[in-house]
Amino acid sequence: MGDCRRCGKCCTGLTFTLPGVASNRLFREYYQAHGCRIEGNTLHVPLRCPHLTEENLCDIHDTKPLLCKTFRGKKQGKFYVDKGCGYND
Ligand code: SF4
Ligand code: SF4
Question: Which of 11, 77, 81, 83 is spaced 20 to 30 Å from 66 by Cα?
């Protein structure tokens, strides 16, 4: 396992496993209209957390959510960074 590269990907884009998202027309149209990308059962949401600084640091580091504190790149539940996270190397 590698280390965090401070690339900020985990704070700028969310990837979810969402079974059926591609086959449900309403879901598909809604997410695509909001700039999301769908690949099979995977939904990519291009959001930048408002707490991420320009240096890719977290401005609420001491009080950030538990998911952020425990994040290690690999798939955790429905949320993960699929490519490029240093923890995945
Ligand atoms: S995606 Fe991985 S390497 Fe990049 S900032 Fe998040 S934890 Fe660190
Ligand atoms: S709260 Fe901090 S660690 Fe969590 S997504 Fe936002 S910037 Fe990233």
Answer: 83
Query: Is 54 inside any structural domain?
Result: yes
**Which residues, other chains included, contact 22 with Cβ-Cβ below 8 Å and sequence gap of 6+?**
28, 38, 39, 40, 41
pLDDT digits (tens, 9 = 90+) for 17-59: 888 888 999 989 998 998 899 998 888 888 888 899 999 899 9
Residue 85 belongs to some domain of the structure: no
Query: Is the CB of 67 within 6 Å of ligand 1?
Result: no
Q: How far is the CA of 29 from the centre of ligand 1 (A)?
A: 30
Q: Atom 1 of ligand 2 has which residue's CA nearest to it?
A: 64
Question: Domain of 69?
Answer: 9-80
**pTM of this structure:** 0.70
